[in-house]
Amino acid sequence: MQAGHLRGYVEFRERSLDYSRTVMGSWDVPGRCDIRVITYVLNAHLRRHATYRSWFEYKDAQNIVRHTIQDPRDIQFVAKEYGVMTQLEWRDHVLATPDPLQWDCFRFGVIQYQDRFTLYASVDHLHCDPVLIASFYVEILMNYNALLEGKAPVTLPPAASYDDFCLRESQYVSGVTLESPEVRKWIEFAEANGGTLPDFPLPLGEQSMRDGGEVHVRRLLGPEQTARFEAICRQTGVRFSGGLFACVALTHYELTGAETYYGLTPIDKRKNPADFMTMGWFTGVVPFTVAIRPNSFEETARVAQASFDANIDLANVPYDRVLELAPGLRRPGPQFTMMNYMDAGLPPLSAIVASAMKGVNATAFTDGRNPAFAYSTVYRLFDEVTIMVSYPKNPIARESVRRYTEALMSVFHRAVGDGLAGVPVRVAS
Which of 147, 159, 151 is nearest to 29 (CA)? Predict the structure, then answer.
């Protein structure tokens, strides 16, 4: 996954495009920041996680050399004061976070206000996935508050070995062949999509421009609707995610008329508590196929859940590896898309959401650069369901994403109302 990220960055750079790559978040903390304490805590965080001790030398797409710092104590970040900055100056400062071919492709900062300060992180996706949120809060903010109060640092279990995880992944992936069940299923999935991975159902316009990307956010379900949707999913015998995939499939049908939906969704491959307290890229991708029942949410949800569950082991084999084994397949095109689901009521977020995210202005940011593809994330947070779509910045994509999220919201609302049975289905021409 890290190699794929680096290849994407270089590919965009060669096209004079700025690759969207950083994960950014911030929290508000009362009072004046003790720079000495926060510097100590940040260095402890950087030394704790092995991913920060790696950097990569890109020779070509198939030859990427990983270098490592042997002694974590060699990492020593120091505070630098920048003085008063405008919002535009701060934006430029954050966007200056080094690229993933530099070792220090991560930055932490403090914005001091009169009665509070904002602590923020800008970390290249090379080194993190959404667990950054939990790690950032538990390891940095909780430790900062403890030390400021004269207490001992928060006791944490040892971080899992990210090196061991990567080696296990590499050994497994290098051992699969064309006859491996996961590879055969990936090939069947790609062949059903014309020899590659599925596309967004609506046009995304010109993507070779240097205009960057945009984000569209829409609430799909309020608290009462969310509770109702979860109850319907349980009664149907599926999980919340299965219900989501059913709504996505039904939306695809309404927009295209296609009676089969081919979806992709990332999953977290962490297995134990130590993994969930470890920074790194632990993500795999699961393909699934839904034979849509246009007038039945329940039947569509059961099919979607069954396909996802049957294909979950495919997350162990990246599509890039499948391309190596089956060169007749193609890399995804410019319309490629993926749907992510994040539930703040599940680990690793569940342990910190109630205390950490309400009342502290917890915020996630996007860097506004050119996205690799149209990427949707459905969040379940504080008993509401919201979708965020990252897409290329052009009028055609903007209208398509607006139309898509409106259609998805309509399907969700019908599912929590009287269901889909007996409701006329509109098929776009």
Answer: 147
Q: What is the crossing angle of helices 395-416 and 297-310, to 10°?
A: 110
Query: Measured between alpha carbons, how far is residue 137 from residues 35, 82, 129, 145 in Å?
Result: 17, 24, 14, 11
127 contacts 105 by C-beta, under 8 angstroms: yes
Q: The tokens 């928060």 sit on which residue?
A: 154
Give me Rg for the CA atoms of the chain.
22
Cα→Cα distances 16→7, 183, 329, Å: 14, 34, 27
pLDDT exceeds cutoff 60 at 351: no
The residues near 244 (Cβ < 8 Å, ≥ 6 apart) are 341, 378
SS3 state of residue 406:
helix
- Residues present in the chain in total: 429
List the structure tokens of 56.
Answer: 């990569």
Span 287-308, average pLDDT = 97
Which candidate, 237, 293, 277, 303, places its Cα nearest to that of 423?
293
Q: What is the dihedral of CA 410, 412, 413, 414, to 10 degrees?
A: 90
Task: Tell the residue number behind the tokens 């979860």, with chain if given.
Answer: 230
pLDDT digits 0-9 by tens, 367-419: 889 998 999 999 998 789 999 999 999 999 999 999 999 999 999 999 998 55
- Average pLDDT on 244-250 reads 98
The Cα–Cα gap between 112 and 297 comes to 50
